[in-house]
Structures are given as structure tokens and as C-alpha cells.
Amino acid sequence: MTSAQVDKGNSGGQAVEVADSGTSGEGYQRALGARQIQMIAIGGAIGTGLFLGAGKAIAKAGPSLVLAYAVAGLVIFFIMRALGELLMYRPVSGSFSEYAREFIGPFAGFVTGWTYWLFWVVTGITEVTAAAQYMTFWFDIPQWVSALIFTIILYGVNLISVKLFGELEFWFSMVKVTAIVGMILICAGILTLGFSDAGDTASVTHLWADGGFFPHGIKGTLMTLQIVMFAFLAVELVGVTAGESKDPKTVLPKAINTVPWRIAVFYVGALIMILSVVPWTEFQPDVSPFVAAFKKMGLGLGAGIVNFVVLTAALSSCNSGMYSTGRMLRDLALNGQGPKFFTRLTRSGTPLVGTTFSAALMLVGVWINYQWPGDAFTYVVSFATISGMWAWIMILISQLRYRRLSDLGALPRSGFRAPGAPYTSVFALFFIAVVIVMMGIDKDTRVSLYCAPLWAALLGVSYLVLKARNPENKAFAKN
Predict the structure, then answer these.
(1) Euclidean distance between CA atoms 66 and 269, whole angstroms
(2) In the chain, N or C: fewer CB atoms in 10 Å?
(3) What's the pTM?
(4) What's the pLDDT at 193?
């Protein structure tokens, strides 16, 4: 879409020009400042995948999980720099869908938009599932009850203006960052000063002494890649905020360039410290390693605090999901690839209809928790990962095609070019392909690959129906 578009879905029903300095060309309020974007970018990578999923990954890979996070983190940086190059070329809130539509084709844009929407709906279910599990640390209540309450509360939060959403996410992220840095410092103190119950046995030798660095071989490490990549899902959320950033061409590059140290500190650094203080063999796959570590240290209060932090992390991610789904549905609707009623905005610039529709579907997560409280996390994580990685694939392919066109002079060159491209983008695509293969080998995650063709078929039929009904719509025309 272009800056010439107007919003016809406001509460008054009249077309409103959106070219003023405080409003983006898509009708949104440019209310997210540098401080908020930075923390959304930092906090986006800290969620259930790290706090809860890491327990399963440690059981499968042992200390070699540190290496898996490091290598996958490098790939994520390549993806984010590819996204950054596209964002500086044209910053829009429906970024992944828009770029796929422009550089690959209308069908690719259609699939990307709806798949990324589905990713966040499923992720929202995942995060509510995790939050419900965390509540059992304090209260003996059914998971589905907590899941229902959290879904309703977060829906209410998303009716607030984007400025307040950004402020809430800022403080959510601040809690997560402060907690992880605090855990790293405590573990460092235990290793050097020897205090707490774990002081006598804490040692970096735990990284290789308890069965070796690869206790289950290289295959065991490869089998954790699905969990590892799930942990990094949502780092691309800064692309969705482009349409509501006050100064996207200054703020977004700075946020993207924080990716390497985010991964180095919050994933690699935190895991090295925890696995040095407590042997990997003492962790349980269904328990957060951060909570378990504090229990092993004899710091009961610390475990409760950490459980509160991971609860905050899960709710923060779900909140971001509700934010993203409404915007993605509106982008599809504005391009004629979704129902028109999704274009409606509230007076404060919130896509109320799309957010409401998405929140209603997230209630499916409550039913999943009721039916399969023990297996819900594994089911939704595997499906969220495959749908989320589709967005990454589209980002990389779009960047490769944009780079070729800009090098030929057909399009303006981005002011934030991805270093090492096209080779880094090709390597990232290869790595994602390896992850998908590993998901097919693992019987616990294979179900997501069964669902993917069904989703693709549904999208294919829907696209053909929409195209037949709207043959003159430019959204279905080849570039």
C-alpha cells in the first residue's frame, strides 16, 4: 500500500486522510518511540521458548544446547538484517506480507499475511498455555481456568491505544531483562564466591564433565533446533511496528543491531551460567530451568520471583501476538485479500475488529488446555514454529530479489544493507531447511508438517475464490 491510501474504517465511517505527521500512511498513529521500540525488540526474543522450552531442549541436548542457540542466533541476525534492508527501503506495518507481495507475487503476499496471522494466534495459545502452567507453581487450579482468565485480560489490554501498549510492553520487557541479568550475576557470584547450597558443586566443568558436551551426540543437538528456533520467534515483530514508529528509519536499524548482544547475553550467557551452577542431568523437561536452578540453589524465594518473571514473559508475548494479528488482518483487508470489515480502526487507531476476531480464536487454547493439559505445549509449539518460519523464508527471498533489483538500479538502494548478502541469506534459508527436516524426523513435532499442507490447500482454494470474485483487484495481479 502507499501513503495515498486513506482509512475508511474509522468509527465515524468517513474517509480520513492520513498524511499528517502523527499518522502513518496506513491510518495508524505513529506513537511508538525509540525507547519503546528498543525494548519491544529486546523483549520479543525473551519468552516461553527460553524460559519453558529450554527445559525440554536441555534434556535432549545437554550442554551442547548452548552451541545450538549460538549458531541459530547467528542465523537470526542474518534474517533480521535482511528484514532491516527491506524496512529501510519501505517501512510498512504489514511488512512481511507487503514485501512478499511486491517481490515474489500476490499469492505469496496472501499466504504470508494469513500464515503470519495464524502464527501469532497459535503463539498466543502457546503463551497462555505456558502462563497457565506457571500458575500451578503457586495455586492448585486447572490450567484451562487460568488460560481463560489471561486471554480475556489481554484482550482488554489490546483495546487501549498503541502508545499505552508500547509503554506496557516496555515495562514487561524491562522486567524480563532485569531478571535475566540478575540471574546471570547471581550465578556468577556462586561460581566465584561459592555461596548458596549449590556453591560447593558449582563449576564450569559441568559443561563437559557430565557425559560430555554432546551427551546425546550431534543428533541430539540437531533435534533441539525446532525448540531453539521457536525461542527466537517474535524477533521480527519490530517489522510490524514500522507503521507506528515515530522515526522508523532511525529507530529500527538500532533495534535490529541489538540482536547479537541480546542472543549472546540472554541465551548463550544465561545458559552457560545456569548449566555451570547446576548439572544438566538434574533438570526436568517439563520444568523451567530457571525456576529449577533457584530451587537447587536453595533459594526458594528466588524461584518464586523467577516464576513471576516467566509468567510476565508469557503474557507479554501473548499481548504482542494480539497486537500483531489485528494489524496483519487489516493489511490483508486493505489489499483486498481479506474481509473489508477488518480495515476498521477505533478513534485511537486500534484495529478493533481484527484483534477481537483473533482473541476469539485464541480461546481455542483454553479448550486445548482442558483436553490435553500435559501435551498442549508440544502441540502448539511445533505448529507455531513451522508457520513462524514461513515469514522468515519470505523475508529472505524478498531481500534476495530486492537486492538484485537495487543492484541493477531498478529500485533505490536501501540505506541499511545486509552485510554478507546474498550469501548470508542463502545460508539462513539452508539452515531453516535443516530445521524443517529435523521436525519431520522428530515424532513429537512431525504433526506440524502434517498440518502445513492442509493450511496451504485451504489458502490456495481461498485465494482462487477471492481472485475469481475480484478479477480487477490489483492485489491479485502479477507485478
Answers:
(1) 8
(2) C
(3) 0.85
(4) 85
